[in-house]
Amino acid sequence: MSTQPRKRYRRYLEPGASCRVPKQTLHNQRSKKSHVLVDKGDSGGTDGRRDVLSPNAALGPGLAAESKASTSSSYDDTEGNQEEPDSVDYLYCENASESDSSSATKCASSSNDEESDNSWIETDSTASSDDEDSDSSHLSDGDMQRFFEKCSSETLPNQAITKAQALLLILTYVVHAGLSWSQVEGLLKLINTLCGCDVVPDTKYRFRKLWHDRMESLRMHYFCPTCFSYLGLRTRKKISETFTCLTCQSLYNTQQLISTGSFFLVFHLKRLLYECIARHAGRIYDGLKKAQSTVYGVYSDITSGRMYKSIRRRLNMKWSDITVTLNSDGSPVFESSKSSVWPIQLFVNELPFNIRFQEVLVGALWFGKRHPPAHLFLKTFVEAFNGIGRIRWHHAGTRISSRVYAVCCCVDSPARAGILNMKQFNGYFGCSWCLIKGTVVDGVLRYLPGTSPAGTRTHRNVVEDMYNAFQRGEPVHGIKGPSPLLQLNGFNLVWCMPPDVMHCVLEGVTRQLTESWLSATGAEYYIGRHIRHIDGLIVKMKPPITFCRFPRPLSDHAHWKATEWLYWLLFYSLPSLKEFLHTVYLNHFSILCQAIYLLMQPVVTDTDLEEASSLLTSFVSKVHTLYGPSGATFNVHQLLHLTKSVEMLGPLWGTSTFPFENGNGQLLRLVKAAQGVPLQIAERCTMKSWLRTASKLVELSPMLESRKNRIMNMQLVVHSKVQVLGAPLLSYQLEGSVEQLFVERYGTLPCMTHYARLVLNDMRIHTTSYTRATKTYSSCVRMNNGKYCLVIDICSILLDTRKIVLVCQDLVTVECGFRFVRYMHRCHIPPPGRSLSLHTQEDVSAQCVFLELGDTFYVCDVPSTYRID
């Protein structure tokens, strides 16, 4: 027998005991207390163990107050070495070693690194009973600010870094490194061990309580898993609720619905938008003022489109009212499962495009094996969106009140049909912009060009068709019934849902034609026999360093991303196919290249629209002749509506799904385990939002700010429009002809420093002598006078002020040889030392793509100044 003394239990009851109360004991005691209060109606009674068992006993038995106090004082509990108050708030988070058999069932779903915690979903009666519809308190960060003010007054042992700064840096690392909760807890314990005291919350439960209040504002909606009827909204007044489906009369409790995943989440939309506006108040203010200016016939963004201006005018919107673009698309989470996550994402249109595409907000979340029914998921989101009300914010001492309107919903074709409650593109009348019926060819619906153009759809006609379809119980012009988007104020059901360039053009028509060239053995346009030669040409091409992907062989096209199809369409295809694809088909494809380039420019004019419309009409009409009826797909038909889309909502890059697809990818990276996927994503998004707010409240020194940027993988922070990179080139010697150019321009040879790299207005320019970048070529630029140049040297000269001067070699350009393309030119490089010129930083207009194919060189203009990828 063992000689070890028997373990003593309940040591926390002994006088002066310093050990902690087990979490399950705390939970049981509070549960018993809540039952006593409910049964006896006694609001003031306590038992003899209240002071020992509950660290919040001083607050009294008030249930709402107790829950709020346990959240707001989580950091104080850590500092005071008190018992952990998280057993109630995190009902499903207990470790198996600390739980009895009764809690084992509750922990069954918390496997896989405990990422599937449903801890915030339901609590006992200590939860707050505040009205969920009241959101004014949720928008205030007063408690959070007071928390950081207290932490800012305390420093780490023997250091000048405050606890608030340390907590901010730790949270930054946790968010951007994507640590699991077990790793987070290990990190917290390690930091406290190295510091010799508790400087941060010592468990993941206390750490997660920092943003617990924000998780409370998350709305969980239940639905019937049998008939997908809406059941109701989660309430926090009871541990378990019962719902009866009014359609199939099935009875469910909340535990069943959660375990089967029969719920979806809607985020606090008002808070999301309020925080986004607060982060970029100045930029949004400028964007709202800019949207007031009207320049007809010029389309530079969604705010310059005719539909955008029409909605503002028709609804009599104030200048301060903001608009958003919506998106919904599914992404599979696991390779071994059919389950997908379907977020509804949005961004604010009045933000500058480079900021807008980075500020994609998640408004709602669906997870399951089937597509979310629009009458259930989208309808609930629309109701929440309509309930946002006014958002009040400040800028430069001015108080501004804004309402929020949806003016665009950019999705792919299947999602568009589901949202509009109409037939898919493979059914009659499957186009949402016109009334073309379609023709069945070999059992497949094709969109063959007709003798007369099909009638166009209007918002009024679509609403009438929805009403008639609902009355008759059958589709009318492809419309099956009402759409949830009817409830969005001012939303046009035709042109507020534009074609998407990513799915329609890049992964649609471009991929379709490329695969035809490679697979149609025996056809006049077959190039499969030359695939090795084409691969050799493509992999040798060197794009600018701003391109996010290097060229991959054409034989690997099945794995290309949409960005690679964009590069293939505009830059790589024509030069590499010139010697292999029949001229008729190459010229036909060049029509598409030029049209898409025109519609993706930073600024599109009415003249560009007329030219693009003519080109696309010609391209579509010839597809049937060149490739047969099988080539007349819906994606090809959509090309006819692209120019109208640009007229209504601005250039194609402004209404593409690129930023939303990137948002989907970021959401998938938040999943750390197989259980509780939507809850994992929701909490990680909430944690990121909390971090953004905390970053504004905690002031960091320049050194700590630099460390924070390094943690966030921000490798380059440019504080001005022009900045040289790297160390000066000490051994650089100017040629005599270059010295003469400086003397002719400035009257003397100024003092100068030479560099090999430069950042200029978001362009990263390298000199031709820079050799470290072996797979990219970033030396070609276009000047304001239209000349194309190679940057030979980057000089920082000192005259009255310091300025940047580029020593360039002018290229000799001629027509590219592709019949319809004007943004691409063949060029010749003069001999060394010839055709040199000096240009200041103000002379540079844009960076260009420089391609080398043997002895032939091409220079290509890039359509958009911002990478949509």
Automatic annotation (TrEMBL):
Bias (Basic residues): 1-10
Biased composition (Basic and acidic residues): 36-52
Transmembrane segments: none
Low complexity bias: start-end ranges: 96-111
Protein name as it appears in the record: Cr1-8 nvi
The organism's taxonomic lineage, starting at the top: Eukaryota, Metazoa, Ecdysozoa, Arthropoda, Chelicerata
Coiled coil (residue ranges): none
Origin superkingdom: Eukaryota
Region (Disordered): 1-140
Biased composition (Acidic residues): 76-87
